[in-house]
């Protein structure tokens, strides 16, 4: 199995898991968010990843989220299900469930907290590969796993049978683009192509897609990739300029946290301002309630043309 066995490409929002204000899982809002992304033309979604707050869900809830997302998508967009856990056995259990539920593939980072050595990372994914029957995406998330999957390690992982993609969230842009060059002959690569530098890489070397935190721009995020597929680089360049301008106003370098709160907390607050289904965060995450912070976030959305000037809290 390799990159040609899947058709994953384009913009895949990293899907937030909606909770009620009291902390209950909110599957009605989850289904509404799936429909929202379908209406905005997204090419896929990634559920139960970092934005999905998998770490605060029970195993039963994680399975319910996967089933609900796949069922609501009903083949209208690709659904990848995050299965990160502390052991390959536990990860494989979530993966087998997701694939049986109809997911198009599964995604997992190296186990958090353990800070695996390179050979241990390889064996973790080999164990996962042996325990599931379906396409696997490697998730490089250094802030969560304590491991940054560099180019040499990614090259080795790309040779594992059912590894067909990598979602690379390294904060090191040079490393990302070197990894993309090295492994794209075998696996799909998702990462920061939607930057000015990334557009130039797409122009000269190609790329597969981006998994972004939600989709603040909406349809233009999907349109970026559709323009690229048509050979039009003017539209993607303009969108990249806007994205490069917006990102540092809202997010810390490396994209691991918001300037006004935790990543999930800030993303859900922004989505709510934009009228997108989002729900609430669940503890240990806390909502952003400071009025000055909320005003500042809204001002950024207005400044970037994502909200009208007259929109006031």
TrEMBL record:
<keyword id="KW-0456">Lyase</keyword>
<dbReference type="Pfam" id="PF00701">
    <property type="entry name" value="DHDPS"/>
</dbReference>
<dbReference type="InterPro" id="IPR002220">
    <property type="entry name" value="DapA-like"/>
</dbReference>
<protein>
    <submittedName>
        <fullName>Dihydrodipicolinate synthase family protein</fullName>
    </submittedName>
</protein>
<comment type="similarity">
    <text>Belongs to the DapA family.</text>
</comment>
<dbReference type="InterPro" id="IPR013785">
    <property type="entry name" value="Aldolase_TIM"/>
</dbReference>
């Amino acid at each position: 199995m390799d990159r040609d066995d899947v058709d994953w490409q384009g913009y895949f929002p990293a899907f937030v898991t909606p909770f009620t204000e009291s902390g209950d899982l909110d599957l009605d809002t989850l289904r509404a968010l799936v429909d929202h992304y379908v209406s905005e033309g997204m090419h896929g979604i990634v559920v139960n990843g970092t934005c999905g707050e998998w770490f605060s869900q029970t195993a039963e809830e994680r399975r319910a989220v996967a089933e609900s997302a796949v069922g609501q998508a009903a083949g209208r967009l690709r659904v990848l299900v995050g299965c990160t856990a502390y052991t390959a056995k536990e990860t494989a259990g979530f993966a087998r469930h997701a694939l049986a539920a109809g997911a198009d593939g599964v995604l997992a980072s190296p186990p958090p907290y353990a800070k695996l050595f390179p050979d241990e990372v390889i064996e973790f994914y080999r164990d996962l590969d042996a325990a599931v029957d379906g396409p696997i995406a490697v998730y490089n998330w250094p802030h969560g796993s304590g491991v940054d999957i560099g180019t040499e390690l990614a090259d080795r992982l790309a040779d594992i049978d059912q590894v067909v993609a990598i979602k690379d969230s390294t904060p090191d842009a040079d490393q990302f683009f070197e990894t993309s060059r090295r492994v794209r002959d075998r696996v799909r690569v998702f990462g920061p192509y939607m930057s000015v530098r990334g557009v130039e890489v797409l122009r000269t070397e190609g790329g597969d897609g981006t998994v972004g935190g939600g989709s603040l721009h909406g349809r233009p995020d999907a349109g970026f990739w559709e323009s690229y597929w048509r050979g039009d680089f003017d539209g993607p360049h303009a969108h990249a300029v806007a994205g490069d301008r917006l990102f540092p106003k809202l997010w810390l370098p490396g994209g691991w946290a918001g300037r006004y709160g935790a990543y999930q907390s800030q993303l859900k607050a922004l989505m709510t301002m934009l009228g997108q289904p989002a729900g609430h965060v669940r503890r240990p995450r806390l909502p952003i309630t400071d009025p000055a912070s909320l005003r500042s976030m809204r001002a950024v959305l207005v400044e970037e043309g994502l909200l009208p000037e007259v929109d006031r809290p």
